[in-house]
Structure formats: C-alpha cells, structure tokens
Amino acid sequence: MTSVRNADAGNGDWLVGNPTAAQLASALWIGSVGLLILGLQPVLLGALYTEGHVSGDELALVATAEMIAIGIGSAVVAMLLSARNMRWKSAILLVLLALANWATAYAVSPNSLIGARTVAGLAEGGLVAVATELIARSRRAERIGGYFVTIQTLAQCALALLLALYVIPAAGSAGGFIVLAVVCIASLAVAFIVPDNYADLPKEENFGNVLTVPSLTALLCVFCYFMFFGSVWAFLEPLGAQYGIDGRTVGLIVSASLAIQVLGAMTATVFEARIDYRFAIVAIGVVAVACSAVLVRSPSLTIFWAAALVMGFILLFIVPYQIRLAITADETRTAVLLVPAAQLFGLAIGPIAASLLIDGKDFRPVPEFAAASAAASVVMLGLFILVARRRRAIA
User: Membrane-spanning regions, if any (predicted)?
Assistant: First the structure.
C-alpha cells in the first residue's frame, strides 16, 4: 500500500509527505471531477429548462442547492474527517456522485431534481477536498492550485463541447447527466492511484485556526470576490437581452469565456511566484469593478464581449493568490482547506443577493451589486493587511 509518509519524510517541495507526480495528478483529477458541474451548469441546466423540467425559479434553486452542497461537502471532509484511506473515500464519493447523476437523469419532478443535485453537491465537495488536502501540504500550494484549476477547466471545456454538440441534441439533458455518471465510474481507476494516507498537517487547534481575524478576513475576501462573479454570470443572458444582444450570442460569449478561463489559470501558474499576492488581488479587484461598471452603462456588443472575456480571465487567474492569502493568514494551513468552500458559497449567494435588487426587467442593479462585491473583496484584503501588521508589531 503506497502512502504519503509522515512529516519528517517530507522533501523540499512538500511540508509533509512526498507524493509522486502520478499520485499528485490523480488527486487533482479526482478534485476536478468534483467541479466539472461548474462549467457544465449552463449547458445541462439550460437543457433542463428548455425541456420544461423546471421553471426559471426552480432552475435557480437547483443550481444554488448544488453550489451550497459542494461548499458544505468540501468543508466537512477537509475539517472533520481524517486524511486516511483516501483511495476508498475517493472511490465511495465517485460512486455516490455517479448514482446522483443517474438519479438526476431520471428525476420526474423539481423536488427530486433538487434532492439529486444536493446529494451530488455533497459528493462533489468531498472530491474537491481530496485535491485541496494534498495541495495544502505543498510548499508551492499556489502553483499546484493553478495546475488544479487548469485541469478542471480544460475538462469542463472538453465535456461542454461534447455535450453541447453531440450528447444533448441526441439524448437531451438526461444523456448529459449519464455522461457525467460514466466519467465518475471511469475515474475509479484513478482513485486507486491517489495516496492512501496523507501525512498530517499541524491541526491541533483545528477550527480555532480559522476563527481568527486574519483567517476570517482572508476567507471573506475570497467569498466577496466570487460573489462578484457569480452574480454577473447568473444574469449574463438577461443583461445581454436588455442591451439588445440575443441569447445565441450570449451563449457564444459564455463558451469563449470558459476557454479564456483556461488561459487565465495557465497564466497564473507561470506568474504566481513573480507577483505579490496583495498586489494581484487589489489589481484584479479594480479590474472586476471596472468590468461591472461597464455592464451598467448599456455597452455595445463589442464592449460586452470584452467585459465578459476579461471577467473569465481573472476568475481563475486570482485563485493561486487567494491560496497564498489563506496560507499567510494561517500557517497551519487549516484556512486554505476552506478556500473552495468560500469560493462556492460566493458563487451560490451572489445570484440570490443580486436578484433581490432587480426591479422588473431592469437587470442593471446586478452589475452594480457585483461591483460592490468586488470592492468589498479589496476592503477585506486591506483589513487583513492591517491586522497582520498590528500582530507583527505586537510580536
């Protein structure tokens, strides 16, 4: 049985343990399977809506329930369960996710869809933790985090293309979810390459390491940034319609943005060590506010395209720097395990919060809310820096 050895066996690249390249790649793939739905939601849930399985409000509930469940699943597995028997845990979660995808394909009511996607989200969150637990043990967690988002986004792109062009036209949304179930079953072979036991990180205080001002402000910085993106993305089509842009064009913009996200993730892996995380988060926050402001002012088609593509690029470009922020906030790396949960909760809460501001068919309050969320993210970073400096001065 191969395992990641104890802390003393770590090498220069790892705080604890010494996984092989194949073990690292397998863990990143398992985590990527858990996040495939993030790129496929517009295709799969759009098909459910078009086929009349759900109304617009029910569609939002399905999407939100799954997002929140992913966040809960990743937090529970990372914080409450030991990093032991990771191969069997990965295999069980993959089987559970496959069953939830199969159940979704044959769900006959909105309530059964919500139930199936909630179960799927819990399993997906657990799979995400398989990757983030190992990433947290690396001395170069930001770089490996960049690899992680690159792998998952490339997989999302490939599957989105397959589903949109071939599967859904032939077999509808049910066929799409069956394909996801097949991906889960096929990934069982990879699950048994994952390190069976991860070496222990120092977690004596556990939740106490997270319930500190530096950790909380760091996680709130991540949460607010993803609220920005989640709110705009959920309402991109009605925003486009308000400005005279047809749904097909918005669909093309979404597809192009997904491809740009890959470029953002790959760029981040190249430059993450050369740019200070504080500068990167502030600069990206300013760009996010600017993109949101553009979408408030009745942009032309060209400007709309540009804003959407820039938002796609910065979405994943920022992730390695958010990982560095969380590590700086909590050297035991407990907080970094909750970064995916903070991201997913932001993606889930953003659309709900923004929808409360919509007045009839005027969707301009959505990008206004997004701009405020992006600005709040920068403010949280500022608070983190002030607290960190004060602690250093006291020490």
Answer: 27-49, 61-83, 90-108, 114-135, 147-168, 174-194, 206-229, 249-270, 277-296, 302-323, 335-357, 369-388
